[in-house]
Amino acid sequence: MSVRFEQVSVSFGHRAALLQVSATLEAGTVTGIIGPNGAGKTTLLRAALGLQPVSHGTVRVLGKPLTEWPREALARAMAYLPQGGEARWPMRVADLVLLGRLPHRAAFGPPDLKDRVAALDALARCDASPYANRRMDELSAGERARVLFARALATGAAVLLADEPAAYLDPSHQLRLMELLREEARRGTAVGVTLHDLSLAARHCDRILVLQDGRLVADGPPPQALADATLARVFQIARADDSLGLGAFRRL
Amino acid sequence: MGSRLTGGGDRKAVMDATTVSFLQTSLRHRARWLIVLGGAALVFGLWSFLLGSADYSPHELLTGLVTGKGAAGIIAQEIRLPRAALALIVGAALAGSGAALQGLFVNPLAEPGVTGVTSCAGLGAVVAMYFGLVTLHPLTLPAFAIAGALVSAAILYALSKSGAGAVSLVLAGVAIGSFATALTALALSLSANPYAMSEMVLWMMGSLKDRTLNDLAFALPLTAVGLALLASTGRGLDALTLGEEAARSLGVNVTSLRARVVLGVALATGAATAAAGAVSFVGLVIPHLLRPLFGHQPSRLILPSMIGGAAMVAAADVALRLIAPDGQLLLGVVTAMLGAPFFLWLILKLRRQP
Predict the structure, then answer these.
(1) How far is C-alpha B55 from the geometric centre of its chain's CA atoms?
(2) Residue B164: per-residue pLDDT
(3) Which residues is A209 bridged to in the sheet?
(4) ipTM, interface predicted TM-score of the complex
């Protein structure tokens, strides 16, 4: 139980973004968080990270309530890849990935050998080593997304939360990304990832949380969480006849 | 499985060796440029010290500076030293502020002059000076300048928080700057000062003429505190490159980071403006020139910008005295003549980017 949400509610003004959500992200598993736009997927991740104050309930990270975590220690325990992130200065790729090591570094002085090894290892795992010394503005959007993902991996956190990491990637890189998440889980990391692509989620996640209007409406292994009834109710879609084996859906 | 692990280990080892060597060369490369900048600052500072209307040899001036004896000693300690040292301090303050503001706003156009911070500091200084507040305590001059800078920096801060883009930031700076300049003119007209017009020009363009040891004594510690604050923000500003949420998830206290930048800029720019008037564009030109040499991440630019800015202002102060030895050319004129075309060019360059 790396991250545990206990009756967590978040409201923006009068609108409830999350309503009494209780769920866990387990170590060593990839948990997909799905739901229509505005269902509260990002809010759930932000609440787990302490970026979004919760109005009710408790978030526990590694057994300890979020409020008791010192800022730096929490940054070492949880890595976050925000949606559509970009490097806003054209930094060198290796330097950008090293930013993931900030929570580990002493107040002053250059990164030590451990930081560099972690950064390079993360780059290598994301197949981004060839451009370690290039500048971010010299890379394609897909390449940049992989570097930013490597930045999150470089932290070596016990919990990795990624918001729509597959959004700007071509299919082959999407698959590679899901493999990477799986590899990361195999190392014992609790991986939480929001996804829009249901087939991707069904095929690559161990567990799936389905959110609708801030409520957790399904929680379980993919076949169970993505049952026909749930799909119809939450997404207004149904599995289509699929002679090509593409995992297609049609609108209801 | 075993072979896979070995393969991974080899890959890691090879990569590590290349990057370690790369990081070392890049470190050496940056250290070399830092020495070049420091050397330039030293040379122009010394040149500024040796330059003046009174005809003394460098040897006489330098011994005078140490001993303080004779006419050469008085000139060296009370006229030449304040001017040369203030040139370095003002340059370091403005360029360091520019580098930090650019990091905070993630905008290469942010700079104390362009964003109106120096104009507001100038307004504060003029109010303190021409309404007799300076006679209460000499510290009121820099204090008012810093307060002025703080007001404009706080407005910009609020704008940046509300997500204002590069252009709106600069436009807001223009509005703030023009307003402060108009109020400065008004304050000078109301102050029953017969030299209001000529004084106004001095404040608006900036000058290091006739500075005293007193000016230096106030500018040095205040600027030092401001720059120390800015130097502490490097890492946080680097993290901000990834966006505010990612920075927070990396353990950066973004609120404190913003406050430190705003306060550091206000202290450094305010103290510098109280001593030299509103000198523009130093904070724009220097970080931009140094980016190709030191890299784009903010932490790499703050210290080099301070040293480079010191060199630039000292050089400008030397140049204007070589061009017009009668002291008619103002410091801000020289920096604006270099900086304004540069600013335009930068805007055109940014427009071409998506």
Answers:
(1) 32
(2) 66
(3) A33, A219
(4) 0.91
From chain A residues 142-161, the ones with a CB under 8 A of any chain B CB are 148, 151, 155
Number of CB atoms found within 10 A of residue B31's CB: 10
CB contacts of B253 in chain A (<8 Å) are: 71
- Check CB contact under 8 Å for B243 and A82: yes
Question: Is A133 touching B (CB cutoff 8 A)?
Answer: yes
pLDDT in tens, B149-197: 999 988 888 887 776 666 788 888 889 999 998 998 888 888 777 777 7
N-terminal to C-terminal alpha carbon distance within chain A:
37
Helix axes B166-190, B140-161, angle to 10 degrees: 150
Residues in chain B: 354
In whole angstroms, give the CA distance from residue A197 to residue A175: 11
Under an 8 A CB cutoff, do B246 and A80 touch? yes
Residues of chain A with pLDDT > 70, as a percent, come to: 98
The predicted pLDDT at position B169 comes to 80
CA gap B180, A150 in Å, rounded: 47
**Rounded Cα gap, residues B289 and A27, in angstroms:** 48
Distance of alpha carbon A104 from alpha carbon A114, whole angstroms: 10
Q: Is the pTM of this model over 0.90?
A: no
pLDDT, one tens digit per residue, over A199-224 is 899 999 999 999 999 999 999 999 99
Judged by CB atoms closer than 8 Å, whether chains meet at A96 and B241 is answered as: yes
Q: Is A112 on the interface with B (CB under 8 A)?
A: no
For chain B, the first-to-last Cα distance in angstroms comes to 47
Give A-chain residues touching B240 at CB under 8 angstroms: 88
Single-letter amino acid code for the residue at B338:
L
- Closest chain B residue to A100 measured between Cα atoms? B250
Q: For residue A152, how far is the Cα from the chain centroid?
A: 10
Placement of tokens 């940046």 in the chain: B160
Q: Tell whether the model's pLDDT for residue A112 goes beyond 60.
A: yes
Distance CA A35, CA A234 (A): 7
B107 or B1, higher pLDDT: B107
d(CA B326, CA B323): 9
**Across chain A, how many H-helices and E-strands are there?**
9, 12
pLDDT at B308 over 50: yes
Between B11, B18, B249, which is nearest A51 by CB? B249
* Most A CBs within 10 Å, among B249, B253, B256, B349, to test the A interface: B249
